[in-house]
User: What shape does this take?
Amino acid sequence: MVVDDTEPLDDDYEEQGDQYEVATLIRRMTSIQDPVMRRRQLQRHVISVDAPVFASHLSHIVVHAVRGNAMAAELLMSVCEYIHQAQGRDLLALEAVNLAARADGHLALGWMLLKPEPVRTVERLVHRQIGRPMTLGERKSMASGWDHSRLERLLVDTDVAVIERLCRNPRLLEQHVLLLASRRPTLPELLHVVAREPRWMRRATVREALVQNPYACTGMALCLLPTIPVPALERLQFANEFHPAIRDFSRYLLQLRRGNPEFIQIPDYSDFKPQRVGPDIEKAWRTYGKG
Assistant: This one.
């Protein structure tokens, strides 16, 4: 998201003591330069405060970020990374935050923590190899290599371990990751690998590609939505090929940016039925990327 420092960090929110005050929290968290250390500090904060308090904090962070504050936008990226990597007690803490957000009317946070299914799912994808078949070990080794032509061959791999190594390879280029993020058909777990890698999560183009992939988990797309550029939100609010939650949340974020949100609650999406693609998609997969 393109941000600036024109939106001030107001200090007029209800205080919960200095350590819990929102503007101070944003400044303290963003003063930690290392993304991993910042995420760990955020984790400690989630565990140490009551769920309604943290839900309020996150809601204000989202509002500041959407309205153009650079520090809030930077912290929001760390929040997204924390949500994507949450396990164990962090998942339980986030579920409590989600319930508190919905109870207290923090709509932006409530949308971010929804977990709908992908709009499209494929029953299975077959790994296609050209030439001599390679073992999983050989492909993983190749994914850590330096030859761009070999790395490009792995962009259509269907094994999470291979894609994980590929995304961590410092020689991989953004154009390669954009192919991974926008590939269709694909598996949601492969897109999750891209989203879990901080180096690529920080690229707005990659986040936008993930959000606009109908094979991605809708929950991941909703979490990333407040971090993508405004022109993309303007397109998504009218796009019919995505989950209706994507359209509604995009519209809400644009209203929030202008200061006139019209939604008073999150709609019920229980009637929405994702599209499941049958085995015939294999034919398309086998011809995908031939050359």
Q: What stands out?
A: The chain is about 55% helix and 0% strand.
